[in-house]
Amino acid sequence: MNKVVLITGATSGIGLACAKKFAANGDRLILTGRNEHRLNEIRKALTEKGSEVLTLAFDVRDREKAAKYIQELPAEWQQIDVLVNNAGLALGLEPEYEGNPDDWETMIDTNIKGLLTMTRLVVPGMVARNSGHIINIGSVAGDAAYAGGNVYCATKAAVKALSDGLRIDVANTAVRVTNLKPGLVETNFSNIRFHGDSDRAANVYKGIKPLTGDDIADVAVYAANAPEHVQIAEVLILATHQASGSVIVRK
Ligand code: NDP
Ligand code: 8X3
Predict the structure, then answer these.
(1) Deepest of 53, 75, 181, 188, by most Cβ within 10 A of its Cβ?
(2) What's the CA-to-centroid distance between 153 and ligand 2, angstroms?
(3) For residue 90, which of 7, 185, 192 has the smallest C-alpha distance?
(4) Which PANTHER family match (predicted)?
(5) Is residue 183 part of a domain?
(6) Å from CA of 85 to ligand 2 middle
(7) Angle, helix 63-71 to helix 115-129, in steps of 10 degrees
(8) Does some domain include residue 243?
(9) What percent of the chain clears pLDDT 90, i.e. is strictly above it?
(10) How far apart are CA 178 and CA 48, in angstroms?
């Protein structure tokens, strides 16, 4: 309630659902993403419902711009209570030996280095105030590789290692770190992964009731509102007919 929550990748899917759920919880939102038009639309819709929203359009791979925006936040937005490191993507599902190096670079730069950039910019203030919460959106894909997942799975394994490492680094403070690991969530994720091939994307969710962004956002809001002495360190959230990243029972 009344926290300042910064969400990266808030223009779609899990990030957008988090924006709506944290807004409904009475929190103030800093929403980021590359798509400025979508950010403006979302700000307008949430503001009309009574929320306080600031939007910042930047690419998390652009370290300089990210630093400029965070360092120049208006005074009333500078004390970020919750950082939701959500911006991320998968590209391709080829065997590792046939993958596209440009796709690898985009995934590594966004999912790992972008998350690190935001952590480096926001967490020092939390440590100085002895208060704050970082919610990283990892994945079941970080627990074990699945066919064709290679580099994407590696980036999400890195999110687990970075969450665990950060948790150690802030253990002498009241700052908390959560790694949320969703399974199959129907968002724009597969459209992006398959470079706009919507039939192939739809097939990913065929014969199964997938999770929604709201399902993940509910857990994020729960973790952020747990009593101060409770650190929800890691949560694996799967669709009911999914047992792991590679075991999915379709009807
Ligand atoms: P969407 O494609 O629906 O949303 C991705 C969001 O990330 C968009 O808001 C996009 O905003 C933002 N984004 C992507 N690249 C950048 C960038 N370089 N800079 C800033 N923002 C960026 O996918 P999801 O909601 O599904 O994905 C969100 C997170 O959840 C990702 O980290 C993903 O790996 C993870 N995840 C998804 C699962 C799923 O099954 N869908 C399961 C497990 C984890 P914009 O285009 O405006 O920049
Ligand atoms: C997204 C979930 O299993 O499609 O991280 O990789 S999965």
Answers:
(1) 181
(2) 8
(3) 192
(4) ALCOHOL DEHYDROGENASE
(5) yes
(6) 16
(7) 30
(8) no
(9) 100
(10) 31
Separation between Cα atoms, residue 166 and residue 104, nearest integer Å: 24
pTM for the full predicted model: 0.98
152 carries an active-site annotation: yes
Query: What's the number of domains the chain is made of?
Result: 1
Pairing of strands 133-137, 28-33: unpaired
Range of the domain at 198: 4-237
Ligand 1 atom with minimal separation from the 15 CA: 25
Residues 15, 11: Cα–Cα separation, whole Å? 7
Contact present, 179 and 222 (Cβ < 8 Å): no
Interface ipTM above 0.90:
yes
Phi, psi of 10 (to 5 degrees): -95, 10
**Spatial distance between the Cα atoms of 87 and 114, rounded to a whole number of angstroms:** 8
Token pair for residue 193?
């992964």
